[in-house]
């Protein structure tokens, strides 16, 4: 265990960004854009959402200025790091017509090496879930692997919880325990820096930081504990897969199906959802074909098409498919829950459907009726 | 090589914008003409050949007695009939006459109202004849039209997505204007096709591509109302280019039936 270091004043975070950029990383961090905090490429601390926090509820997100000089007091917004590791749109391969046949080629992924600055504990957990999906099963996704293997992660420990956060009950946060190269905890005067990997230690060594004083480490730990205490939302996970799979005909599915817009927003903002569709697109002029992949969702009817017709033609059955996969059959498939408790699906549902409330309703009055 | 399919582009009550979008698709136009023979396309050529046609592309809604007869004749001499645009698929902006007194307007506006033989309704083509494929939008997406034409020419099903606009917003990184700004946005119940144009410019979707299949309007309207949007703002939002598409029509009428219901 390497002693934590002390990065102060806070403006010295620029030194860390510079060090990452010198090592050819493209630094991605939270920024204010489109009335929200999203992730974008930055080269200067000026672009960080310093002094902003987010007010969230079910179906509600608003940015607010804060009087405290806090750089990371907001929680998670609509983006997740999935947009860099598993891009929303990409080309998988191409096929060019030749006089005597076809020339097939895998598409080269020319993405830069990313440094993710500001990844939260629930997001590290989400990346680990997607690692299982894309890297640790029988099939390896080349694009994800190429991006993930080069990504440098500067995590930030949450010192405030949002109204939709329930990472404590999912045992993913708010403190980061693994899966980072460096982890920052913000205090009033600076950042306590934990080193999580050898390359993290190598990089931070160039900043020549002192060891963090004990009272700073204590303040950092207390603020993480305070964030955990702030959480009011929770999901009871005990025996959850069995509860869901023995209640497949519960009337609650129809109830939520009547409220659900099947708009796909929950799955798009979910940091672990990985559904996608693949289409071959022909250039009419050259005859060349691109095999394109893009994010897709189990919530729209077409996605359940088998042989041209949907097998889940009611919203009720699509919501049930999503929830039972996320919280139950995900365990069978990937040996983990698909939910990390980030609360994005609650915030970004236009009508505020709350996954924790749906689970609680099933738990309150189980009917035990396997399909 | 088999002969190219004979295509007719026909117009009913409409602005011509949808058929012109095909002429605007300059990058693909020559390649499209290599595969299809446009034998009746008044916006492109004054040589207009009679049927039969392999593919009839129909723009516009049915608003006159003559239209009703003409669409039946076109159907009878066409192997496949594709309707394009909000007018042909939902009745278009001119369907707003459903909530007015069209005879009174005709008497007031035209110096010789006896020349006007408009029906009291503006109805989609599918209300009159069998339609093989409906392509939505005001205007349509020209690439989608090319996809439909090429698919039919090559004997396969068109690959046209039918999900909501929300999926496009998220794919392109557009932050939800409803959740983050409290705007009334029809995106969750509107069919994809525009690429989420309006939300990307920080305004709510106003439903140009019509209702998504299986769209669930009541909870969305209830949420709009809960956020303080008044019925008198929401009804015009629903009554646009797809005003009489059943989902939008019923949604607007439910608001007027319960003008102060904020659930």
Features:
heterodimer, A: 371 residues, alpha+beta, 2 domains, seven-stranded mixed beta sheet, four-stranded antiparallel beta sheet, 13 helices, 32% helix, 23% strand, B: 263 residues, alpha/beta, Rossmann fold, five-stranded parallel beta sheet, two-stranded antiparallel ribbon, 12 helices, globular
Description:
The complex is a heterodimer of chains A (371) and B (263). Chain A is an alpha+beta fold. Chain A is 32% helix and 23% strand. A seven-stranded mixed beta sheet of chain A has the order 1-11-10-9-8-2-3. Chain A has a four-stranded antiparallel beta sheet with strand order 7-6-13-12, with no helix packed on it. Chain A has a two-stranded antiparallel ribbon with strand order 4-5. Chain A starts with a strand and ends in a 7-residue tail after the last helix. The model of chain A has no long low-confidence stretch (mean pLDDT 96). Chain B has twelve helices and seven strands. Chain B has helices at residues 17-24, 26-35, 65-76, 85-90, 102-109, 142-153, 165-172, 177-181, 197-200, 217-226, 231-238, 246-257, and strands at 6-11, 37-41, 53-59, 62-64, 78-84, 118-123, 133-135. In chain B, helix 1 (17-24) packs across helix 6 and helix 11 packs antiparallel against helix 12 (246-257). The chains are: A alpha+beta (371), B alpha/beta (263).
